[in-house]
Amino acid sequence: MSEIVELELAEKIKLLSPGTKLRKALDDIIHAQLGALIVFIDEEEFPRYSSILQSGFKLDCPFSPERLYELSKMDGAIVMDKNASKILAANVHIVPDPSIPTTETGTRHRTAERLAKQLGVMVVAISKRRNVVTLYYKDKKYVFGDINLVLTKVGQTINALERFRESFDKSLEVLDKLEIEGNVSLGYVCEILIRGIEIKSISSSIEISIVELGVEGRLSQLRLLEVLKDLDEILTLIIMDYSKKDITEDDAKQILETMLKIDHRPVPFAKLLGYDVVNSQQVSDTIVRPRGYRILRNEVHIPMNISQNVIKSFRSIDRLVKTNPSVLQKVEGIGDKRAKAILRRLREIKKRRQ
């Protein structure tokens, strides 16, 4: 349920991001040093809340930044439809349930937080004194930062992520050679998984900031997508390769999700892969043999169903590289040309770092 609320919150933040009409109105209100309380509700539900959203002036007019700005000069709250396309009322007196807990101190923000929790709607509070926009949605709170500071933070984080991804990709090249030689330690596998998980974790920490940037964050979004390109697939295939038991792709994805939530250390990762280890030294000393899903999918570029047939026949990539085309082509889905192409590519990888 919390993940659903997080996605909904991101959609609400997008409504208030730079480049939208609503953000223009909020910026105008801030520049004029006015405070405001704006409630977003389902238009059809509005009459039901008469005991909470009291009096005021009913307007029922299309939204425009200029109208919202002018109405913010009045006392009371402004009520809009949930899609921010219509202004329903202004100068509204809000009476939320006073027993609802709130961490805020100012009257406007205490009212906003309680109303968001009580009705499960989006409420925006603009501080007259601090010129800060705060969004409340259900039990979530999001404070919009200075756009230049957010841009700087996002840019610095993506710069670091790009370096991490470059290092991760170089580690994969080393893993290619070790796999074909049959000389992979469980410690090295866990190290690569940890690097990939950390890239995902750090990326998640700035995704909401990129949403907040709106049109100003388009370049950052493209750069982040490049950093994350194929990462989930690679990590999933590594888990399928090194899980002690044969597992499905769905099983591997579930393990990947669990890795995001646990300590990023070799022992917990090794245990998730099914190995009975107690310390890092034991992890490092354990030699493992990959099934070959990652190399067959990402380096040789053959479909998963055919990869499964190959792996079922050879069990590990180092055995596969030692075979000959006449044996390989007996596997279902592998003809003469494909057998030669697979072995040629595997031997190219083996020679790449010699």
UniProtKB/TrEMBL annotation:
PANTHER family: DIADENYLATE CYCLASE, DNA INTEGRITY SCANNING PROTEIN DISA
Name by which UniProt lists this protein: Nucleic-acid-binding protein (Contains the HHH domain)
A Pfam family annotated for this UniProt entry: DAC
Taxonomic placement: Bacteria, Thermotogati, Thermotogota, Thermotogae, Thermotogales
Known catalytic reactions: 2 ATP = 3',3'-c-di-AMP + 2 diphosphate
Keyword Nucleotidyltransferase: yes
Keyword set includes Nucleotidyltransferase: yes
Highest taxon above the source species: Bacteria
GO molecular function: adenylate cyclase activity; ATP binding; diadenylate cyclase activity
Species annotation: Fervidobacterium pennivorans (strain DSM 9078 / Ven5)
Matching Gene3D superfamilies: 5' to 3' exonuclease, C-terminal subdomain, DNA integrity scanning linker region, DNA integrity scanning protein, DisA, N-terminal domain
Keywords assigned: ATP-binding, Nucleotide-binding, Nucleotidyltransferase, Transferase
DAC domain: residues covered: 6-149
